[in-house]
Structure formats: C-alpha cells, structure tokens
Amino acid sequence: MNPRLSQLIGHVFDNWIELLAEVLRQARDSGELMVSVPPEVFAKHIVATIEGGVMMSRLSKNGDDLRDCLNSIRAILGIEPK
C-alpha cells in the first residue's frame, strides 16, 4: 500500500477510535455504561468489529455478517438490536 495513503487511513482510524473512546468514557462516567474494559480498548474493539463485519459482508456479498456484528455491539452496549 502507498505509504501516504496508509498514513491517511491510519489517521482516520485513530480519530474514529479517539472520538468513540470519549463517548464511551462519558457514558461510563455517567453510569450509562457498565463495561470493565478501558474506553480506548473498547473503542478499538468496536471499530475492529465493524470493519471485520464490513469485510466479511463484502466477501460474502451479504449484509448479514455486518448486521450480526453491529447487533453484537448493540447487545454489549445494552441497546436493542435492529
């Protein structure tokens, strides 16, 4: 992969994880989220699960894989699956 493109994509992921970690931190601090994993680690897990679901859905040409991954995140967060 082109080093410049790789760096840009890395920044996108870093920003996504940073923003998500902040939301998770706020939810934890307000008592809305009861997860023992540090927010930064949980944010990486969420991003990795979403990206894995995207890749699996593209390979299978079926949206069920992504939907299952999103529903697992919702379940962990205590949000009703769609």
Automatic annotation (TrEMBL):
Boundaries of every Tetracyclin repressor-like C-terminal domain copy: 2-69
Keywords, in A-Z order: Transcription, Transcription regulation
Membrane-spanning intervals of the chain: none
Organism superkingdom: Bacteria
Name of the protein this chain belongs to: Tetracyclin repressor-like C-terminal domain-containing protein
Species the sequence originates in: Desulfomonile tiedjei
